[in-house]
Amino acid sequence: MDACELLKRYAAGERNFNKVELIHADLISAELNGIHLSRADLDWTNLSGAKLVEADLSGAELVNSNLINIDLSKANLSGANLSRSDLSWANLSGANLIRTDLCQSNLRGANLSRANLSRVDLSGANLTGLNFSEVNLSGANVTGANLSGANLNRADLSGTNLRGADFSQAKLVGTNLSGANQVGAVLTGADLNGADLSRSNLTGAHLQGLVLSGVILRGANLRGANMRAVDIVDANLSRADLIGANLSRVNLSGGNLSWATLSRANLSRAELGGINLNRATLHGGNLSTVDLRGVSLIGADLSEANMSGTNLSRADLSGANLSSANLRGVNLSEADLGGAIMPDGRRRD
């Protein structure tokens, strides 16, 4: 079948074209609303400007196709292969894109409002500036994709693979990123206010200079992450893994880091007023010149930590481990050291 025959039969009222082969077909601006093209082979097809509202393209092959300005609103594209296709300015609002392959596709300017993108493959795709607000992307593969400037406010990215993705200047307010893999992701300048990053993997992520007010990082893996000068007031980082993280000049005031692992982390000149560090592991960490006045460090592991010039006045260090810690110039006035292990290995009464 060729494009002319398909258009003729569609005009006559036929809608079922499942499994049809139309490779390299020219269907520019074709009106094909409600057409059934399930498992059809449409590789290299030109459908630019075409209208396929509520069409069934489930399992279809559209590799390397021209889909610029196409209208696929409310269409079923589940399991379809659109890899390396150009979907610039396409209308995909309300479309079913579950398990769709959009690897290396161009979605610049596309409308994805209310679309279901769970388990979709967007690896390496150009998603610059797109609106993904409240979109379901749970379990999707977005590795290496460019999401710079994209709007992902309140979207569901739980369990998503975001390894190496670029989120610079993206909007992620209230976004669900729980359990997501963000190893090496770039989040410079992104807005993550109120986002849920619990149990997410942010190993080596670039977070410097971000405002993370009210963000949930409970149980997150932030090993080696660059969080220099991050504003993370009132954040929940309990049981988070921050081994070797750069937290210099970070503002963690009022945050919860109880049971967090901060071994070898750099916290120099960080703002930690009112923080909860109970049972936290700070072995070998750099806490020099940090203001910890009145902070709770009950049972914390500060062994071999550099605390030179730190202010620990009125801090609660009961049961803390300070063995081999550097306390040169530390202010311990009115601090509670009951049961603490001091740098010489002796336990305080």
TrEMBL record:
For this UniProt entry, which segments traverse the membrane? Answer: none
| Pfam families registered for this protein in UniProt | Pentapeptide
Q: Which SUPFAM superfamilies match?
A: Pentapeptide repeat-like
Q: Which InterPro entries match?
A: 5peptide_repeat, Pentapeptide-BTB/POZ_domain
Q: Which residues form a coiled coil?
A: none
What is this protein's name? Pentapeptide repeat family protein
Q: Give the organism, scientific name.
A: uncultured Synechococcales cyanobacterium
Ranked from the top, the taxonomy reads: Bacteria, Bacillati, Cyanobacteriota, Cyanophyceae, Synechococcales
